Amino acid sequence: MARYLIRRILLAVVTMFAVSVLTFLLFFAVPTSPAYVMCGKQCDAHAIAQTEQRLGLDKPIVTQYGEFMKGIAVGRTYGTGDLAVKCDAPCLGFSFRTNEPVTDIIKRTLPVTVSVVVGALVIQLVIGVGLGMISALRRGTAFDKAAVGVSLVGASMQIYFFGPILLLIFVYSLHWLPNPAYTSPFDDPFKWFTQMILPWVTLGFLNSAIYARLSRAQMLETLSEDFVRTARAKGLPKRKVYARHALRAAITPIVTIAGLDLGGALGGAVITETVFGVNGLGRTSVNAVNDLNLPVVMGTVLLAAFFIICMNIIVDVLYSVIDPRVRLS
Amino acid sequence: MTATASSAATSGVADDRPYLEVDDLRVQFKTEDGIVRAVDGISFALPRGRTLGIVGESGSGKSVTSLTVMGLHNAARTRITGSIKLDGREIVGLDDEQVRRMRGRDVAMIFQDPLSALHPYYTIGKQISEAYLVHHPGRKAEARKRAIEMLDRVGIPQPKKRADQYPHEFSGGMRQRAMIAMALVNDPSLLIADEPTTALDVTVQAQILDLLEDLQREFNSAIIMITHDLGVVSQVADEVMVMYGGHAIEFGSVEQVLRSPQHPYAWGLLQSVPSLRGNAEEDLDPIPGSPPSLINLPSGCAFHPRCAYKMVGGGPCDLEVPELLPTADAGHVVACHLPENERRRVYEEEIKLGAAQ
Fold this sequence. Notes:
The complex is a heterodimer.
Chain A lengths: L1 H28 L4 H6 L5 H11 L5 H14 L1 E3 L6 E3 L14 H36 L4 H15 L2 H15 L15 H35 L2 H8 L4 H29 L3 H7 L4 H10 L3 H29 L7
Helix pairs in contact in A: 1-13, 5-6, 5-8, 5-10, 5-13, 6-8, 7-8, 7-11, 8-10, 9-10, 10-13, 11-12, 12-13
Chain B lengths: L19 E12 L2 E13 L4 E5 L6 H9 L7 E9 L2 E2 L5 H7 L4 E4 L3 H4 L6 H12 L4 H14 L5 H4 L9 H13 L5 E5 L7 H18 L2 E6 L2 H7 L2 E6 L2 E7 H6 L4 H8 L53 E2 L6 E2 L5 H12 L6
Parallel strand pairs in B: 3-8, 3-9, 6-7, 7-8
Antiparallel strand pairs in B: 1-2, 1-4, 4-5, 9-10, 10-12, 11-12
Helix pairs in contact in B: 4-5, 4-7, 5-7, 7-8
């Protein structure tokens, strides 16, 4: 187990390194210099050169990359003399646009994304898995057919269609809910909840469609397994056959998929954040790409990669806990 | 489809009152393609301490018969008629809850592949004690003790340690022993073994069959042994029922059915068994064709399209369903249109020598 974890962590470090190199290279493959984007209409060669020098973009890519990585490891100092700005490790640099430290930007936007994503995950697991399991147990009934129908609609719907409709109804027409925004749950849990409920429902409902279909299929497959028949042959009541024997086996792959989904979503729920106008990691990341804001791009991309890799490891470890046949080696 | 029910079938079994009585059992499933007549008029009786072997190809209805006795069929899509009596109590038409209480306590079942029949996520000990706890609620410590006792009884070394292991940590033979321990934990009066040795290698097979016989003597339970392996039947069964296309086509003592079978299908089964002593160069003699569709059985005798001795063209084989009729041997019943002396002659002259005896 320990050896397995060490190997996986080493592999994760290598993956992160590869991601950072690729992001860097891709960034410099864009023909426009960030300096053009920044200096606006009144721009001459001199101003651009000055900006590039200020941002360190005049140095060779390898040097820039080296300095960036050094910043993460031990921190770095920007500028010289009186203008020197110290940036402590882990230093991801400063935004080209606002000069805000990238770590501060992440600290500000990450809780927003975590709020949206985790809340939606809870909804999609409860509704999706619940609906799927029940319709598997009631296969062929009206409930099953309705659930399959609803999940088909959900799976084909888009956030940018469903989200605005909910906004129109609950915020602008009925005035039941405030406009979605982010308030820290530690400051005002009620406000946090009422502002977040629409993004949760939108993202959660649409994703629950996929989970419903998946868990229905899983459950149907498990119900036809021999060990479920054995459980019935023992004389166990239906409820226990389903809960203790069938559900336990059917839920395993869903845990895996939910974990990987969570890892991916923590990197930013771009569309949801954009539709509801909350500034999470996803929106920040997309804006940074548009602005050619390298430090922010690097920071958010690396963070997203970090989440995905972490969740992969967590899911694997969890799997070995759920399924005694799985050995980590 | 006419009835092939026979009261003669019951006359082959021993003296005391039968524990299990099945009378004219019919099981039908509704499917999209039509009605599957999986079991079509089966009758037999089985007293405690005796073993009935049910033999037939896949799809002959042997497993469905046993699942129906257990009440494990899908109630919504299955139609059952006839009668199944356990210890004199009718269980066809009983409500789910009553059948459930009986399941595992009065009737237990051993399945073919113990790896897939045991839950991969629970320890062996837990699965056995669960079977005990269903029928003895709240007695947890006792259940655990009993599970270890049973593991010991079925010949699993270090039962205490093994009880905490998972099915995948057991070998095939040990898994089947654990399965048997689980089935016997409540001292059931009837044990149904559905091909219990098919997934095991030969040496282990013999051990498992010996174990079953030992346990039968000890617990005096009735056993239904479902198999397509005539070797298994000859080792453990007292009576044998041969099934084909949902019908019983031959029934008798193990001597009668294996030493002087009278149905051409039973001959075919015997001839498909490879012989250890025969000529290695000689080809096996399989039954031509494949088992019939249970949705659309051949007319007349369901076996006639594959039968080498059929009488067709005015003959009765393709027109009339043969009934199970007594033969000269008391207790031996056969459903075949061929005259009995003709069947005896063909068996003696053509089949006996070639069969693996």
